[in-house]
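Risk register update: the risk of archive-format incompatibility is retired. Evidence:
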Amino acid sequence: MALEVSLISEAENPVLELTGKIIDIDVKKLQHKMDQLYKKKAIPRIVLDVSLANFIDSHGVGTIVYYHTLLQRENRRLVILNANPDPKAYLNNLFELTNLDKVLNIVKSLE
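Archived output:
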């Protein structure tokens, strides 16, 4: 399934919902939306909802880490929302095995 990137909320803390596979061929879609939000310096936090994504390759992971670093340098935050409760789900395993769960701000709910 091709990646779909949807802007769910444009409030002070926008939410980008990712659905499908975050792979090399589709990462440009994610980068384009993230660039648009990143350039709005008044936004202190961007939420990336990966709850409906089922795969992330190294290009996708690299893009997420890149924007996390950019925002962090400006005292802004990238929050990864992963509401998938299954501990054996692909993304949960990926974040744990790569130790990204210790580096990125990954939450299970926006509350």
